[in-house]
Prior knowledge:
The protein has helices spanning about 20-40, 45-55, 60-70, 80-85, 160-170, 205-220, 225-230, 235-250, 255-265, 270-275, 280-290, 295-305; strands at about 80, 90, 100, 105-110, 115-125, 125-130, 135-140, 175-180, 185-190, 195-200. It has about 300 residues and is of the alpha+beta class.
Amino acid sequence: MTTTATPTKKTTTRTPAKTIEEKKAQAEALHNSISEQVEALRDSARWTAFLDFAQSFHAYSINNLLLILSQREDASRVAGFCKWQSLNRQVRKGEKGIRIFGYSTKKVTEEDENGDEVEKRIARFPILSVFDIGQTELIDPEQGDPGTITAQLTGPKDHGIVDALSAYLTETGWTVERSSLPGTMNGVTRPETMTVVIDESLSPEQAAKTTIHELAHVLLEHTEDIEEYAAHRGLMETEAESVAYVVAGMVGFDTAAYSVGYIAGWADGDTELIKSTAARVLRTAHQIAGILTPEEDATDDAEDAA
């Protein structure tokens, strides 16, 4: 007589979904940790070198900032050809200059209404060419590179983020592209064409972080007004990258190697500015987290209603 064994039903253990309160606490803790990590970075020799480097650059007027961004949307630090050489960087051959207005005065002698000669200074606004840091390369790598305090993420997984957020953007009328971007640009949001572009060379994890960052710009309406963006770029980049850091942490990966330096640079190391973004950052982070885990959020809502 042959006995047939009854198959044993395999049991699986599902990790309980976080409650809304637990998600809020996690997001707040992640945002608070940004300031703590920026403070730690500010105490490092790496930050001192970066600060010295950053202080070498001229502060441009809003009109010149708009000119710069209209010609090179990834521009972050710009300087003239010789200035870059003095900073141990060489403009690459073939790079096209960014045209801006300079400022100088010229002394002239004129006759006044009484026929007397008087000296005057006349303002002049010559056209100058400058180049972004993404158009340069180190002359002597052994001297190190104080111009960057970020490290690209190299993880082999995108945690399902790129497809999920790309689908959301597409459903809301945006086009998402993966193509080559110039210089050090990882991603860009172009509201005039409703296009989000993610650089095709990024690792899956870096692409995931960048996609969150660009969606944050969209949801926060950062680039709807280019003049407003140019005037408050540091704040807006701080907000978008903070959202990326918080959402990534909620999903389960750490972007600190890139995000902390990026946020510190755009916020000028100002932890009070970072803290002031909490409400907008957390609201947007929860919105994106809801896009990534819609079923889980629906379960939470149903449990709360019961």
